[in-house]
Hints:
Elements: H1 3-42, H2 51-82, H3 84-88
Amino acid sequence: MTTDAIAGLMVETIKITLLVSAPMLLVGLIVGVLISLFQAVTQIQEMTLVFVPKIVAVMITLVAASPWMMSLMINYTQNLFANIPVYIK
């Protein structure tokens, strides 16, 4: 296995990881900013107010995006297994 193949495999792995985690992270960020804005406007400084809406939003996003994420990971795994003979050389 050459260093170019290893680097390509690492890049593909990082790309898949970022794509799979991005929807939940973005939704968590957006909900966190909106709740912080709400807290600043209403001057409610309750620490636990942030967690429940953020958890619910991330779980809804996880359920909605899971078919896309699973197909992405399955395609990556199938490609990885199919190229095992190339990686052994």
